[in-house]
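Need tokens for this chain, all 342 residues.
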Amino acid sequence: MSDRKKFLSWLNGRDAWLAQVDEAVIDPGREIVDPHHHLWHRAGSVYELAGLWADTGSGHRVAETVFVQCHAYHDQDGPEHLRPVGETPAVAAMAADSEANPDQATITGIVGHADLRLAPARLDEVLDAHTAAAGGRFRGIRHSASFDQDGAALSIPGRGPAGLYSDPDYRRGAARLGERGLTMEGWHYHHQNADFRDLAAACPDTVMILDHFGGPLGVGPYTGLRESRFSDWQRDVAAIADCPNVVAKLGGLAMPDNGFGWHERAAPPGSDELAAANAHYYRHMIEVFGPERCMFESNFPVDRVSVSYLVLWNMFKKIAADYDQAAQAEMFAGTARRIYRL
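Here are the structure tokens for all 342 residues:
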């Protein structure tokens, strides 16, 4: 079984396991915009609107969401460079359905995929096609640069080649996104943070979003080293924060590749345990980026392999309680609405 299929198999039958931890919803009136989730129907794993609503409707007040590409629903024929556009109309149809139920979260933003190395005319063709298919919801591109030479140890191995952030064609494409008023989503691993910082500095007019804390790995050759290298991670993300065009998403640490091992336990963690293990990452990001450049994200259903939606957002709220109401409003909804123009 491939690593990706094994990961998808972990997601199946998760409801009973997650239900072992039952918590009261903290601050249930707090409005939330979840700026990072996926939708798919692949390899026996289905997470579409019903699954999303089951999670967003579990107790927290989730008003809006942003879908982020995950190589789902791609066209299987036609020009290669346009095949990723198949994801956008599929998600736009679910987004339109979500608008019909005001009592549930509405998908108001779509981040698609394009190969940023394409020749300018071809890249514009892809961006135009996403725009036309999204029904006014298209907000940006994620062309992941995640690469690790020991990728075989990862449950979600990266798709990028080595050195992608330094590729002149990639940088030209990233700059083009800014020219068109689109965002660029950055997903990579911790040892690529310096490269991402250089990319952000080279494309100052493109709003870039740092996903999942810059990917601190804790499996394979990184087993047992995540915390000992915390100071290196702190330095690298602080350097990224010096680029005013970068915004940070706070979430995604419950993926198996981060090495906490929650998905393999007899019972999932509660919000107190999550906060005890992760709060130092969150506090550092909020310190260096500021609340106005931070947004909590679920990264569901990927993080659902380790934690329920209710418990995850309880953990966010416990960490956020250290900050004033204006800061909390930014991190839970304001930053996402502003950056994604929702």
